[in-house]
Design goal:
about 400 residues, alpha/beta, five-stranded mixed β-sheet, 14 helices
Length: about 400
């Protein structure tokens, strides 16, 4: 840079400075400092900056003094340039520091708007922003916009998805202990389920999941039951399930359970389920009560059964990449938001289940047909599945099943 300035100064002729013999013409020196300064840490490239300097008129100045001033000017320009770059560098650091405090979270789930996931996701987004004083913003993406539910857990581990809500049985392929929660009729009632999930057993599960996969559970969410629907006939007893082609998630416990019921289970991803039901590839399926309504399965499936064979929950989870990005206050805000969103969803959905079942089975609304049925054989079959898994998946799994059962006593 000094060489360029020196050459430029040398080429300035005397007449450019002298208006007459007595006075210097006001000198307007304009130059460009070309900077292509790569800052490794912050990856910023400075632009071209312009500085304009004005000299002053000195009636008594002689030519040799002018030359001396040129030399001093070059020295001063160098100092000023370094000072200017230092200022830009400091400002860049400040901007980067400010921006590092703001985090945008993409929270995805695979269900439609209005499903049971909605109250949890939207309340969390609202509270996370509130408790972080606006430094955390959450964008909720429904309907598998970010990722399919079956792929969401792995995407969080890889850091390509920040947060997701996933039905519990879809965690089993990634963390086998989850199957204990999926076992048919493992919970006596909702009180038993919440006591397990929100007590020491649930805390132990969250810690083991975090240690094994890096994924953090912020909320277990509302606990519901999977209701059954089909296109063949009303279910009055387990004998009516014989040979029925039933869509099930890709979860071995659920596959084995329907086999024990006498059905012919077909494992399909959630995204393929509506088409399979419409085309007759499968004749029946089960879902949480609210999902049957939100997905409008009542329009294609005429028979509805409150089987309550599987209890489900759909935890709100965060990727390790996201949790590392949050500062201490933001983590505190996110954890608090998760807990309170959990309580909010429980309150909202607990009131809705009865209303939804009434809608589904009311003529002129859902219009599905239902009937009283004998649950005895279903429960006995579920117990056989429980015992099989409790004795075949290792000591840790056995102890975990025993802990779940004990919490209901």
């Amino acid at each position: 840079m000094d060489t360029k300035i020196a050459i430029w100064m040398k080429n300035i002729s005397k007449k450019d400075y002298l208006k007459d013999k007595k006075c210097l013409n006001p000198l307007k020196i304009q130059f460009k400092i070309e900077v292509n300064y790569f800052l490794k840490k912050y990856r910023l490239i400075s632009s071209i900056y312009k500085l304009t300097w004005l000299s002053y008129c000195d009636h008594n100045m002689h030519n040799h003094i002018l030359i001396k001033r040129k030399e001093n000017l070059m020295i001063n320009l160098k100092k000023l340039s370094l000072t200017f770059l230092t200022l830009i560098f400091t400002l860049c650091l400040s901007v980067q520091s400010v921006n590092a405090g703001n985090v945008t979270i993409n929270l995805g789930h695979g269900n439609t708007e209005g499903s049971a996931y909605d109250p949890l996701a939207k309340k969390f987004a609202e509270l996370a922003e509130k408790y972080s004083n606006g430094t955390v913003k959450v964008k909720v993406r429904c309907c598998a916009q970010l990722v399919k539910e079956d792929e969401a857990f792995k995407a969080m581990q890889l850091g390509t998805v920040d947060m997701a809500i996933i039905t519990g049985n879809n965690l089993s392929p990634h963390f086998g202990l989850t199957d204990a929660f999926v076992l048919p009729y493992i919970f006596k009632n909702k009180e038993h389920a919440y006591k397990v999930l929100e007590g020491p057993v649930g805390d132990s599960y969250k810690k083991k999941l975090l240690d094994a996969t890096g994924v953090t559970i912020l909320a277990f969410g509302f606990v519901g039951d999977r209701d059954f629907y089909n296109s063949r006939k009303p279910i009055k007893s387990m004998a009516d399930m014989k040979g029925l082609k039933v869509r099930v998630p890709k979860n071995q416990v659920m596959i084995d359970t329907f086999k024990e019921f006498g059905a012919a289970p077909i494992a399909l991803p959630w995204a393929d389920t509506p088409t399979a039901l419409q085309t007759g590839t499968v004749q029946g399926a089960d879902n949480g009560t609210s999902f049957i309504k939100s997905a409008k399965f009542y329009e294609i499936m005429p028979y509805f059964t409150v089987l309550e064979h599987f209890t489900y929950f759909s935890p709100l989870m965060a990727s390790p990449h996201l949790m590392k990005k949050l500062d201490a206050d933001q983590k505190k805000a996110v954890l608090r938001a998760g807990k309170e969103a959990n309580d909010y969803q429980k309150s909202v959905m607990s009131k809705k289940v009865g209303e939804i079942r009434k809608f589904l089975t009311t003529e002129g609304q859902g219009g599905m047909k239902t009937t009283e049925f004998d649950r005895t054989d279903f429960i006995a079959a579920g117990q056989r599945v429980q015992d099989k898994y409790a004795t075949s998946k290792g000591a840790e799994f056995t102890e975990f099943v025993q802990a779940i059962r004990a919490a209901g006593n």
